[in-house]
Structure formats: structure tokens, C-alpha cells
Task: inverse folding
């Protein structure tokens, strides 16, 4: 339906974009403010795609009159220290800054008046049996003889209820405890509409919350096919305006095909939920609970391999897809399981392929569509998933729309682009060969959704180019569109720097340019190796929820090869870092053989086998030890660095190894605890760490402990050593 999507949590003075979903470009759409706090004077625009800015704290209802009926959207506004200021950004995250030379703003910095950053939030849902006394609060108004299986239990133990529990967590720098945080729940307006349309009681009228505000309960009788609940944590630091977390969301879906239906599968399944809230049986409805913002389960142990398609195989015109397919077995043998291909669509001739001229056909210089589909199938046959590089911000200037619209005010395509006063199209930086699409145009939105429908069924996920430049209302719609078909479809954003709000109903995995930059600084000798732990800590400090995941890389098609800039020794340690820190590691094609050229043809015949062997071992160790993956805990440990000469009695290291070249940390999960030591120096280091550990390096399989002149046991490390912590 055309409903504009999930509720919005905003600060006063913050603007969000409103857009009908699945739009009909010929349809009529009208917005209005249905309800607002008493002192509000906020209004909404008249265009089909418009903006809304709450001016006082409180709850707003925005109405949309669309071809499929009238819809309501809840906006909850919180007080803001920048109240009354024109703050650009949908839900605080739409990056459309026009005041800084068209460059993206550093949204990794605290907004507003600074101070302590955002808290974090997690929601979990289950289905439980409620109280048996009296009529169910919020139940349908039926006689006792007419009550459905939603409303009664055959064994008298109670009536089924949807239970949503919130776990708020203070910011790492906050003086507040978890008990000091407030929780705000909102039931999704779309599910309210569905319930009321079926003659059920409005689930908002039927719900009740616990005294501490951490738990929400809704009778199953008030749920149609689905109930989605969204929630935020609110922190009121002393002397500061409230800080609001990234929203989390859960869904409870009926899986029984209707009230009272009973078959062999009639049970409750709590997918992605540690609590087993199963109820079900001949007289009870079946439900499935889903955490809507969790990444696909397969990303927990994924390793991404980026292919710059036009030089990876260095083949003649039309042969590239087949040549890449021929190399799939060797890529799979490396241990990677996710293939990211740079754009494969028709383009303007630039080798990177991001200037697209036809969004519905593959580039003829790469091969035929059948060849592309065969490549994807070959990857699947070798246990690899494939990511499609989706470009939603712009077209090439050679696109037929632009060619008709340029310098032609009467063109039917004119309003599909952004235009500057000079008559040139909107663009970013010095990119003269592209033109920014106008996402306020329903034809553009319809077109991009059709592109999504064309390619999503063939692949396992999208890497979304320039995600910061596309309105968040579009990304929210895209997520719902693909996830409703396949919960395991991956959405990964290229947003530099990363933005916590992009994990709020938009993306699963985020480019970690912060860690990338810090690893470069360490490799250059500018910052100490310990600073990479600060880069990881920043994720929570700026408000990313704990369930967010991050793409960790040291090079890609836009960047100089790490070894060229920082040397082989630092490159080995940096490569090990992305496999031992919590995140999703990525290898850029050629990185695993010591390639020096950024976009040159891969020098397969001159591969450095030692480099490939090192990456194979790192991938294998990470796969064998989930504590090294995204869900493992990361903790700092005390450590002391000596040079490679174990006979000396060092106070401060000397020679070719400096203490700032080395970092040690601990990774752990429920099953094991590991200590990791990284050495960016060109010579081996000897490092004592503040935990008892085994004497064997899991990466090399060799002994790694030496004893220095003082009798202290140290881990001897060239680039990386991983040892088990004893006593677990």
C-alpha cells in the first residue's frame, strides 16, 4: 500500500522526508497534519513527496490521502538543543548538505550542543500466555461463546499476548545507569490500519505497558497478520537536552494462516530471539517473531571479496563474466564466501561503471545477461553469495532521460533531475559526467523500485552506492520491499563516514571508513596501533546499536593499495586486524596476492603465494573461532612491548620495534577467550600480555612464546598472533 512506512522519532527542528510507498506517478497524494501538540504550528507540504519539521515536543499524526485510502503516520518529537534551527536530514540522517561545497558532512561528530552521545536500544518479542482473570483488556467485544483461539486457552492457563521487551543501554561515556533511561514504544501505524480493517480492536488501545516502561503487551486478538513495534531509549544527561537512541523494531507475524487454523506446523517460532516463547497447538494461534534490524544471520561469519569487474580478468569485450566465473573456484578456495561485483550495468564507457545509461541491462563490454546470471549461479554452486552494486543517486549524462532534459525546460524528463541555477545538473565533488536524480519525483521513485525488482531476485544483497546522498525514506522502503521477500537479503551502505541512524530500518552492514582511516594512520606511523581500538569503540560512542555490523577493509577500488602507502609489514598486520576485530572483513581482489596497482589488471602470474597463504590462514582461523567474529566481545588488555631481542631487559623498546607499533586485545564469546597481538613494525616483537595464555599461535600453528632476560613469558609476533586464554 501507499502508506509512508514506519513511525519517525525526531528532534524538534529536525526535518524528515515523507513519501508514499509503491507510488503511482499518475495518482493523487495529499498530506495534512491530523493531530499535533497544542502549541505546534507545524505544517506539511502539498507535493506528493514532501517534508515535515516538528516544532515542539510531542506526538504528531500526519495524514496521507492516497489512491488506496487514507493513512496515518506517527511522528514522535523530542526536545532538542537545536530547537528552531533548520537541521537538514530525514530522521537525522538524510545527507543532502548544500552548504559545504556539496561535500558530505562529518556526521560521526556529535550533533547539536555536543556532550554525551546517544544511548542504545534493543527490542525482543515473544508470545506468552497472559492472565486468566476477567475479560482480556483490549480483546474483541465478543460473547464468551464466540471467543476465538486468540482469546482463550483450552487449558485455562491464559490468553496469548504479544510481549515486547526493551533493553536500553547508556552511552559508554554516560554517567547514567540503564535504570535512568526512559523507553518510548510506538505500534506501527500500518498494523493499526490492518487490525481495524479486520474489525479487531485498535492494538494501541489494547496495549498495556509495565510500571517501569520496559515491557509492552498486546493481546493476540488485536493483531491482524502482523504487529510491528518500534522503540527508542531516551537519556536525559544532567544539563543536556534528551539524547535519543537509534530506534529498534520487532515484528510478530501470524504463521497459522488465520484464526483457529490448526495443522502440523501450528506453533510459535521465535526466530532471531534468544527467548523461546513458544505457544501453540490445536487451539492456539501460531506466530513468528523477527528482530527487524538484525543483519542476515550469514553475515556473522561472512568474508567479502570485492571484484573490480573490468580489470579482474583483463579479457576482451564480452568475455568478462565468463572469465570471472572461471576464477570462482580459486576465490572459493581462499575461503571467502561473498562476492561484491562493481556495477555490471550499461554505462558511459568509464571503466568503473558507476555512470549508468541503462539500469535494466548488463554492460555489453562485460557479456550478455545470460552470462551474468551464469556467473551468479556458479558463485552459488561454490557456496558464495553475490552482492549487486546498486546506484540510486544518479544517472550518466549519456542516459536517455538526461540527453532529452539537458537545456530543454519542456522535456518530460526535466523534473527527474536536480538542477543548479547555472543550468547544469546537480552533482557532487567534481563528477562532471553524472547527474543527480530528483528523488522527490514519483517517476524517479517508481523507476528505482522497478530496478530493485529487476535485480534483487537474482542476487543475495545490494551494496548501495553513495547511500548518504539518497533520502532515507527511499532506503526504508527498499528495505521493507526486499526483506518482506527474503529476510536474509543483505543491505550494505557506502556512507563515509558512517551514520548510526542508517541502522534504523535501512541497512544491515556499514562501511567502516573510520577503522580504514585509522589503520592507514597506524601504517604511516602517525598514530599508535592502540588507536584502532578507539576506532572500534567509536561505533557505540556515536550511537550504533550493538546489533549493527561493519565492513572492515584496508583497500578498495577507490584507494591506493595499503602496501604501496604503508609497506609490506604494516599491510600484513592491517590485513590481520580486519579478521580479528569485530566486523565483516573484506578483501579487495589482488590484495591476497600482493597486488600494487589499484585498478590495474590483476597480476595473477606474479602472485606472492606467501601473502595468499597468510589470508587463507586468517580466514580459516576466523571461521574456526566465532569469538573473532562480529558477535564476539572485544576487551582491552594490559601489554608490554619489547624489541625482537629477547636477551635484553627493556624498560622501553628499542631498535626497529616501537611500543606504538603493537597492540594487544582480547576477543571472547560463550565458548572461548582469545588474545590477539598485532605488530605493524618491520621486525618481530616480543609482547607480554596481562592474561594467562597458551603457547601456540592459532594462525600459524607454531609455538609463539619466548622468555626474555627477566624470565617473563612473551608472545613473539611477526604480524599477528592469536592464542587461547587459559582458565576458561
Result:
Amino acid at each position: 500500500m501507499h502508506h509512508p512506512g514506519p513511525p519517525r522519532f525526531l528532534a524538534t527542528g529536525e526535518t524528515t522526508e515523507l513519501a508514499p510507498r509503491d507510488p503511482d506517478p499518475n495518482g493523487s497524494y495529499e498530506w495534512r497534519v491530523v493531530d499535533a501538540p497544542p502549541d505546534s504550528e507545524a505544517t506539511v507540504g502539498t507535493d506528493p513527496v514532501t517534508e515535515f519539521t516538528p516544532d515542539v515536543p510531542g506526538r504528531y499524526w500526519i495524514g496521507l490521502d492516497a489512491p488506496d485510502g487514507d493513512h496515518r503516520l506517527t511522528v514522535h518529537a523530542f526536545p532538542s538543543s537545536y530547537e528552531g534551527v533548520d537541521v537538514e536530514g530525514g530522521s537525522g540522517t538524510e545527507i543532502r548538505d548544500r552548504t559545504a561545497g556539496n561535500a558530505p558532512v562529518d556526521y560521526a561528530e556529535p550533533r547539536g550542543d555536543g556532550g554525551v552521545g546517544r544511548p542504545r536500544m534493543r527490542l525482543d518479542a515473544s508470545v506468552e500466555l497472559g492472565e486468566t482473570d476477567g475479560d482480556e483488556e483490549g480483546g474483541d467485544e465478543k460473547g464468551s461463546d464466540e471467543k476465538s483461539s486468540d482469546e482463550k486457552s483450552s487449558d485455562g492457563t491464559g490468553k496469548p499476548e504479544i510481549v515486547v521487551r526493551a533493553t536500553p543501554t547508556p552511552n559508554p561515556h554516560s554517567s547514567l545507569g540503564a535504570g535512568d533511561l526512559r523507553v518510548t514504544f510506538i505500534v506501527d501505524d500500518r498494523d493499526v490500519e490492518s487490525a481495524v480493517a479486520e474489525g479487531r480492536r485498535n492494538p494501541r488501545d489494547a496495549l498495556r505497558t509495565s510500571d517501569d516502561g520496559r515491557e509492552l503487551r498486546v493481546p493476540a486478538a488485536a493483531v491482524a497478520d502482523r504487529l510491528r513495534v518500534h522503540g527508542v531509549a531516551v537519556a536525559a544527561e544532567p544539563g543536556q537536552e534528551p539524547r535519543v537512541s537509534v530506534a529498534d523494531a520487532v515484528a510478530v507475524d501470524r504463521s497459522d494462516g488465520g484464526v483457529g487454523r490448526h495443522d502440523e506446523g501450528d506453533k510459535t517460532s521465535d526466530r532471531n530471539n534468544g527467548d523461546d516463547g513458544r505457544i501453540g497447538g490445536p487451539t492456539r494461534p501460531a506466530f513468528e517473531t523477527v528482530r527487524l534490524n538484525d543483519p542476515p544471520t550469514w553475515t556473522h561469519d561472512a568474508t567479502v571479496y570485492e571484484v573490480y569487474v573490468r580489470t579482474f580478468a583483463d579479457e576482451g569485450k564480452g568475455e568478462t563474466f565468463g572469465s570471472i566465473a572461471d576464477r570462482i573456484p580459486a576465490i572459493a578456495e581462499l575461503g571467502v564466501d561473498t562476492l561484491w561485483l562493481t556495477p555490471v550495468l550499461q554505462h558511459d564507457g568509464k571503466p568503473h561503471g558507476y555512470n549508468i545509461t541503462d539500469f535494466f541491462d548488463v554492460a555489453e563490454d562485460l557479456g550478455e545477461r545470460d552470462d551474468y546470471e551464469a556467473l551468479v549461479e556458479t558463485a552459488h554452486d561454490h557456496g558464495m553469495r553475490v552482492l549487486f552494486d546498486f546506484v540510486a543517486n544518479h544517472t550518466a549524462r549519456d542516459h536517455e532521460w538526461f540527453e532529452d532534459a539537458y537545456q530543454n525546460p519542456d522535456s518530460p524528463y526535466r523534473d527527474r533531475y536536480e538542477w543548479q541555477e547555472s543550468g547544469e545538473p546537480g552533482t557532487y565533488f567534481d563528477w562532471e559526467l553524472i547527474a543527480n536524480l530528483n528523488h522527490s519525483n514519483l517517476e524517479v521513485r517508481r523507476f528505482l523500485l522497478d530496478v530493485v525488482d529487476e535485480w534483487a531476485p537474482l542476487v543475495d544483497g545490494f551494496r548501495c552506492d553513495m547511500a548518504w546522498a539518497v533520502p532515507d525514506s527511499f532506503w526504508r522502503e527498499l528495505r521493507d520491499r526486499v526483506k518482506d521477500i527474503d529476510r536474509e537479503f543483505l543491505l550494505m551502505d557506502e556512507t563515509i563516514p558512517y551514520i548510526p541512524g542508517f541502522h534504523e530500518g535501512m541497512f544491515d552492514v556499514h562501511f567502516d571508513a573510520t577503522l580504514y582511516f585509522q589503520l592507514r594512520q597506524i601504517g604511516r606511523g602517525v598514530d599508535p596501533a592502540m588507536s584502532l581500538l578507539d576506532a572500534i569503540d567509536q561505533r557505540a560512542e556515536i550511537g550504533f546499536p550493538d546489533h549493527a555490523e561493519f565492513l572492515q577493509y584496508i583497500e578498495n577500488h577507490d584507494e591506493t593499495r595499503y602496501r604501496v602507502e604503508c609497506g609490506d609489514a604494516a599491510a600484513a598486520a592491517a590485513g590481520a586486524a580486519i579478521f580479528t576485530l569485530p566486523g565483516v572483513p573484506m578483501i579487495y581482489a589482488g590484495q591476497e596476492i600482493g597486488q600494487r596497482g589499484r585498478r590495474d589488471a590483476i597480476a595473477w602470474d606474479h602472485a606472492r603465494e606467501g601473502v595468499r597463504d597468510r589470508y587463507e590462514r586468517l580466514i580459516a582461523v576466523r571461521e574456526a573461532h566465532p569469538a573473532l567474529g562480529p558477535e564476539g566481545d572485544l576487551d582491552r588488555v594490559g601489554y608490554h612491548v619489547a624489541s625482537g631481542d629477547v636477551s635484553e631487559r627493556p624498560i622501553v623498546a628499542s631498535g626497529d620495534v616501537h611500543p606504538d607499533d603493537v597492540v594487544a586485545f582480547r576477543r571472547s564469546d560463550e565458548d572461548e577467550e582469545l588474545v590477539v597481538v598485532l605488530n605493524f613494525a618491520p621486525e618481530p616483537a616480543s609482547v607480554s600480555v596481562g592474561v594467562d595464555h597458551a603457547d601456540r599461535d592459532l594462525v600459524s600453528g607454531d609455538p609463539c612464546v619466548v622468555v626474555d632476560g627477566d624470565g617473563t613469558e612473551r608472545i613473539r609476533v611477526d604480524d599477528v598472533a592469536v592464542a587461547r586464554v587459559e582458565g576458561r
In short: Residues 297-390+438-628 form a domain with the TIM Barrel fold (CATH 3.20.20.80). The radius of gyration is 27 Å. The first strand starts at residue 8 and ends at 11.
